[in-house]
């Protein structure tokens, strides 16, 4: 059931040649680049049998695979099911939410393996990949999924792929500056993933501002079942966030601690979200938008500090604050951002990733600055902040300063990068939808006829139902 | 679309100040108590580097985190997605099912960390927490999720929080009596989680009996899609139950064995559930209520014995019986409980957790009593039942007796505690819904307009559909 | 709401005595056989404490449980949620998709433990089972789930159980021939699971050909929400496939490598699927059928070679090709198979498992034939292909030949076995549905009234909606 008004559009959303061309060309490029550069890490290479002896490893269980693979799988679920389903709340954009997220993430992880590999795992001309690289690639793509949330429903799949290409590149540069040049700790990515991803996406959506978007306002809401699908995304993000924040921490106590801190922060966040969701409504009812999103802010906000000695009660405090900040953001800030600053943030990523990401960066800086040998132990102190080699003399307060600098760098990269990419995406060649067809699957997807008729023609008597 | 009849209710379901107040106050209390009492376990503390040497641990992989974290994540999914979605079968209570479960579990795990900590991990004035504590907190909350099933749709979120506070407390006391005083084995919680949780919940719902509940009878059923959502809950509970029953067993063979026994029991349970579901219907058709629930009874019923030498065929027998008992319960017992005993059990927890929990306790007692050194090996025998210290001389048959005593204690605690808490929840201050608005999300939730109109006004010609 | 036309059917779909009888009898048989044959593997037995010393194992973490349990749980999710939800795309067959998959898999894993046990773990009269056996049982059942896809909606639960009984048996025989007699490597089952399962299922559906199936054509499509449910299945299969292909590989580098290769292949596959899905449609829109299925072909096609030194770029190439082959298959081949060869393949398993399985077998043969000591290292080479004992002198090219023979054997077994089982299922005693009631849940399931009325009677003015 093609509705005629789409045909008469000024905008050309026809994807038949453009999308396949980009997908195929870029995938061929990936194959060539992987062929030239990517090989297995020693722990994934068949030479491991010999390597083991040299490294004096006595058991296969010492392979990094067993330290990180369970966390990797949890992170993988967060990227594909977590983000994909979280964005399914719109009543007629479920295919786009989960399908485009699938597309951009599948491309993004390949490009991220290369970009991050060149910066971090490049040895004698080759990128050597193991399970930790897979996690980092998923992390990198996470920041693209976040930015996708801001422009959800307003962009073509080609725009999303273009954005992914650039954002992954910029992510890798920013990550290199933070981790390698500033020697900053950010295992759960409050700065590199959330702050960068959110402000990047917000800048892009600002540049793609659509003044007449209210034409598709009726499609910007949810329906009962779309809210339930979105809760699948929410819960998987919430449950697996301890894995996210601990996935690339040092073996042993650091991974253990990061999981506990995240667990605590997220639990507290649920209670303050519920409290403020009810309080800020005249009718006192809970709002699914808040429950789906603000409950996750606690995980974002301990991203930097979870592996540090934040302590369980410190985590509770962070989660407490972030549930409030995020919920208040949804109620008061999002409308203002749109009306005053012309930032149309479909999923409210500013409330879920932007502000909590900044808080996470600050908490990380403060926690690092407050570190003492007494709290960490002599060896634990050095291990936790990697104060070795040329960083042997760095003090906690200096580390705190560098952590703070990391926030600033991430913001600058996000604004500059977002402006650049937004400008590129504004070119009229990418097939984006017209204002009145935003948030609608049937521009880019074959949508089954019957259900569509359920929604659009429920009351038209001439319509034939599926079965007699 | 507020329907006027809600406004005229005698019952005041307005949550705006009550719910936020409780959430915020209790969360502040958690922060204070965590600040005073909760610290990291040595294996999660940055001093671990030094600790390792003292404990003569050679590798980080020996950290308890790697023994238990994958199981923890599975248990976490069971609590939040498993229970949350299982209860989503009601046609108009999906938000409440998953959302209130989220709220009570998020609060409950914090309170459980404290309560269980005081009883089990309290050292020199501090509660030291690690991954095993997180699992135990999730377990404790599991018993609250079970009880929630009995009162699903008939209570306010405040009542659920109050119940959680008391039930977690009583759970910890009961657990202490069983594990520490009676020296009973119950790794998968047939007694502590299922029997206690179910009979506690049934007592509460008995006291909250609503004689006129048939006023909302049309909302007590499912619709096609709500049954599919519920199957997500069912399957995650079913698939991850081997992790549940093995999560806190001893390292090595005990964890391994517990997973295998549970896998076997659950598989058998599916077949007898299907058999009896078809057999007990005149039309011979399968009933989703049975498939969603009774298929899980096999996991409940090996909760105590899974880590023992129950053997795979023993597990099949237990699963076989429980699929039958549970399905027969749904068909014959649940209606009688309501009409004769005035126990309105929304989810049928008596069939899924009550009777199978009792069976599980008994199977555990018998399996323990039948243990021999020949079957377990000399060392394995002592390790399996922890017959050390003051329990060095305990014999299997005595252990069996104590296991049986554990069932009785759990039941007494459940009835007494349920009566107390039911009485508290009956106070007219908690904002519970009127009989005719039970099982309906829009009392406590902002429900999207369009979908609501789909259901309530599908045929009213004046209604405007979402799109032209 | 029983519609009268079902009653007048020539076909008797009444399950009341037949289904329970089979379920109960077979489950009793399982209990007896388990009682006679099945015991715990030493690593799951309480004697492990003593065993450890004999085996010189220093730590419990060396128990195979910790090497494989996380992968096992992922595989378990793929079988029950992955396949179950993937098949939920039909508008009125959600209960059957997830419920019958649940039934056949629960029975199948028990029978597979026995069948595979007799062939592979039979020692001194007993089958000793551990976590690896659980994975293998799930794998075996995976091939039945695949075959189920071809006959989805057209068979009774009894037929499915009968098919499971035979297919598991034949699977175990085929697996024994390949792994033990031909000494073939196939850790991810491109041949044993996918090729065998697909061509077995296609043969069965060919024999059960229904010339008048277009009578239920209106029910063969999807609706909006059923497509979203199916995406849950797709994503869990996609995300956890690295666990599937690595689950039973050798400890250490082989597991590590298998996960990486699968990750890469699947990522590439998504891009070419999207490309061809758009390209092959005149309107250039993406088709959910392709996204739900063809994106997974990359995982199938590295099933044999993932644990070998396929390398990341080799994996990308395989994924690239399979996304194309699979999508083209859905567009052009499936209709031809039905019209010319009378193969009615409901889920298109030929495109998802058949062709990619064959490609996987070939890629495995080529990769094995191309193996050198330089690439694998001296010890790694022997370990990777298990060139020990009587296979000490086998060369890579000979191994490649045997791998190719494995494909042929799997195909022959599939065609012969499928013909046999198809013939048995054609007997008029199993209660299969009439042509016009295929793809409809309410033949075998109690379907909630209201939703049914939503779909069938949406416009009948006399119908009473659920609520006023």
From TrEMBL, chains A, B, C:
GO cellular component: apical plasma membrane; basolateral plasma membrane
Ammonium transporter AmtB-like domain span: 63-436
Keyword Transport found: yes
Topology of this chain in the membrane: Multi-pass membrane protein
Source organism superkingdom: Eukaryota
Keywords: Ammonia transport, Cell membrane, Glycoprotein, Membrane, Transmembrane, Transmembrane helix, Transport
Name of the protein described by the UniProt record: Ammonium transporter Rh type C
UniProt source species: Tinamus guttatus
